[in-house]
Amino acid sequence: MNTLRFSFCLLSLVTVFSCSQKAKTPSILIKNTLDITRAFETVELTKSDLNIEDISSIGIRDAKTGQLQITQLVDQDGDGSMDIILFQPQIAPNSENVFEVITIVTEEQPKTEALCYSRFVPERTDDYTWENDKVAFRVFGPKAQKMVEDSIPGGTLSSGVDAWLKKVKYPIINKWYKKELETEGSYHEDTGEGLDNFHVGISRGVGGIATKVDTTYYYSKNYTKWHTITSGPIRTSFYLEYEDWDAAGNTIKESKIISLDLGSNLSKFTTTIKGTDQISAGLTLHEKDGEVTGNDVGGWVSYWQPHGQSELGTAIVAPKSTFLGFEKYDTNTKDLSNAYAHLKVENNQVVYYAGFGWKESGQFNNKQEWEAYLNEFSKRVNTPLEVSMR
User: Fold this and answer.
1) Sequence-separated contacts (24+) of 333-336 with Cβ below 8 Å
2) Are residue 98 and residue 145 in the same domain, yes or no?
3) What is the C-alpha separation between 200 and 203, in angstroms, rounded?
4) Are 44 and 57 in contact (CB under 8 A)?
């Protein structure tokens, strides 16, 4: 009888201990060491960070308010299993917040529109196009290149990045292509949502790269391979690959992952490059009637210009450890005048951000506001949120 009572008490203790262990909720501590509010900055956590093998049924909850955060799961390596969870906390200046990792069912996840979107566009030769709630871009594929090389009208030979000037928060990619290809209208005309009136040609557009040898810039042709990684409420990202290209006898191998997060005017370019220890990311100077400015300490270069009946700012921002300086490259050859950010390649990789702000969108009224945005963006890049598990 005493043995039975001891066994029962032991079982009770084990049960209480197990429940207590299950009740312990993993948490995330996020610190903001800057004197600015941090919002629309994406925190990225892997399965190993969370020590969770299956992240498909987890949620993230503000420990103080109890509010569930909008999250996005990403299968980064394409193996069918989710690898990363994203969310965008809001952290006050010089403060910290705690977020709990909890198990939830799909129905409990906060619902929101997928404003970060990208896709391959076979109906318009072979563009690849991406957007968020602020900006939109596109690049050009091998079919468009071959059309130019075979003297077929309608092609584009360029590894520059095109800017689509949108002024609405909702997605416009599919609407604009349908308007251009299936109706009498055109995305070159603004009917209230914005338009495509940004000329790229063989320029670098907004963030295309080049390699400088002596006084000459060399660059790739159109991308040759693509792969969509993710689209959703927080981020869209995709992979591009390029045919090997020549820079004064040096063979350059180039591929990249481009991502665009909610609330950002700048896409992130994570470029893998072999054959050079330095690249230059460029901004087309168009009619050369704008102003190139830069900040070596902040790590950015900008071009603010008259554009149509409005004004437009474009920029490259890079971490301070990567940014080597900037240059205004002016030549008489059409589309070859660019403002360049010179960037250091380390371990065959370089990261930078490129994008634009259009006055007509209501986001920036003048060059001063645009440059203030770049200075703050630079602070965020160089002083990331501090994230730790508890």
Assistant:
1) 334/201, 335/199, 335/200, 335/201, 335/202, 335/203, 335/284, 336/202, 336/203, 336/217
2) no
3) 6
4) no
3-state secondary structure of 310: strand
Within the chain, residue ranges assigned H as helices are 2-23, 47-50, 142-149, 173-182, 367-382
CA dihedral 336, 173, 40, 90 (to 10 degrees): 170
DSSP code string of 54-112: --TTEEEEETTT-PBPPEEEE-TTSSSS--EEEE---B-TTEEEEEEEEE--GGGSPP-
Domain final residue, candidates 109, 136, 152: 109
Q: Any idea which residue has 């506001």 for tokens?
A: 369
Q: With CA atoms as reference, report the closest residue to 138 among 115, 101, 165.
A: 165
Residue-wise pLDDT tens digits, 210-221: 999 999 999 999
Asked if residue 237 lies in contact with residue 84, where contact means CB atoms within 8 angstroms, the answer is no
- DSSP type of residue 198: -
Say how many domains are in the chain.
2
**Burial state string for 104-126 with b = 16 or more CB within 10 A and e = fewer than 16:** eeeeeeeeeeebbbbbebeebbb
Q: How far apart are CA 42 and CA 89, in angstroms?
A: 8
pLDDT tier for residue 24 given thresholds of 50, 70 and 90: low
Residues 268 and 367 in one domain: yes
Non-local CB neighbours of 242 within 8 Å, separated by 6+ positions: 159, 220, 221, 222, 223, 224, 254, 255
Tokens linked to 326: 């900037």
3-class state of residue 199 by DSSP: coil
Residue 111: the pLDDT is: 86
Asked if residue 136 and residue 42 are part of one domain, the reply reads no
Asked if 293 and 235 sit in the same domain, the reply is: yes
Q: Say if pTM beats, i.e. exceeds, 0.85.
A: yes
CATH code of the domain in which 265 resides: 2.70.98
| Structural domain boundaries enclosing 66 | 26-109
Domain boundary among 79, 109, 139: 109
Angstrom distance (rounded) from CA 120 to CA 118: 7
